Amino acid sequence: MKLVSWNVNGLRACVNKGFNDYFKAIDADIFCIQETKLQEGQINLDQMKEYHQYWNYAEKKGYSGTAVFTKIKPLSVRYGLEADQEPEGRIITLEFESFYLVNVYTPNAKRDLSRLDYRMEWEERFLGYLQELDKLKPVVTCGDLNVAHQEIDIKNAKSNHNNSGFTPQERGKMTQLLESGFVDSFRYLYPDREDVYSWWSYMPKVRERNVGWRIDYFLVSSRLASSIIDAQIDCHIMGSDHCPVILELEDQLTQGA
Q1: In what order do the strands lie in the sheet with 52-56?
Q2: pLDDT digits (tens, 9 = 90+) for 173-201
Q3: CATH code, domain carrying 6
Q4: What is the mean pLDDT of the chain?
Q5: How far is CA 202 from each of CA 209, 210, 238, rounded to the nearest angstrom?
Q6: Where is the Endonuclease/exonuclease/phosphatase domain (predicted)?
Q7: What is the per-residue pLDDT across 91-124, written as a single tens digit (0 to 9) for each?
Q8: What residues make up the domain containing 216?
């Protein structure tokens, strides 16, 4: 079973930069995207007819938004953390027979950290949400979590301490999430692999020099760790300031799904 997650930073723009070719070539069972930056009816993806499509649009035009394309029809779909859909379109949860899939685009604390307090409150609610799901079935959560967890996950750790995405508060919430019963699939398999990132600034030569951050993840309930076959980061794929991340799980996980 192959799952892919990609912050496309505007799906319409990404489609013009090779998204469809990558989507077809990777042939994922489930493909999650973040930052769709569009509203219903603004894009036609009829070429994905073999996939069930689920969209969570932000109320603000050209902002945020998530989507999931899945070959496996879910038992149920939920949008947002609470019963009512959240206005920024950040979460889609699909329930399958054997697990929950949560596609998430975590709020950015902003460069001046003006949204850090909101981010901390959001993180608390998100952790509680995953824990409640995990009581029912194992959880696979993926997306742009907007945090480089450890120094190994960022090129210039020393100069970025206290910057948005690498503050002690944000990193602490990531630690708390993992310690509550979840596994970072990439670090589970490759605990010491360096210089592998999923996001690069658009500043000149930054991506060419691989001055990046690993802020896109696949996390799984700890009891699914033994089902992980591989976790990869497709650093060579362009089209966005992020690149796709991939998780391969044993097929038996989807039996009956």
Answers
A1: 52-56, 66-70, 30-34, 2-7, 245-249, 228-233
A2: 999 999 999 999 999 999 999 999 999 99
A3: 3.60.10.10
A4: 95
A5: 12, 12, 12
A6: 4-242
A7: 999 999 999 999 999 999 999 999 999 999 999 9
A8: 2-254
Instruction: Give percent above pLDDT 90 in the chain.
Output: 92
- Residue of 105, 129, 197, 217 marked active site: 105
CA-CA distance, 145 to 185, in Å (whole number)?
14
Q: What is the predicted pLDDT for the residue at 33?
A: 98
Is the pLDDT assigned to residue 257 strictly greater than 70?
Answer: no
The number of distinct structural domains making up the chain is 1
Active site residue 153: no
Handedness of CA 135, 95, 129, 223 (dihedral sign): positive
Could you give the CA distance from residue 213 to residue 226 in angstroms, rounded to a whole number? Answer: 27
Strand ranges of the sheet holding 182-184, from the earlier edge strand across to the other edge: 76-79, 91-95, 100-105, 139-144, 216-221, 182-184
DSSP E strands, the chain: 2-7, 30-34, 52-56, 66-70, 76-79, 91-95, 100-105, 139-144, 182-184, 199-200, 212-213, 216-221, 228-233, 245-249
- 3-state SS, residue 202: coil
Which residues lie across from 30 on neighbouring strands?
3, 70
Catalytic hit among 29, 144, 153, 184: 144
Q: Is 105 a catalytic residue?
A: yes
DSSP state of 201: -
Q: How far is residue 139's CA from residue 136's CA, in Å, rounded to a whole number? A: 9
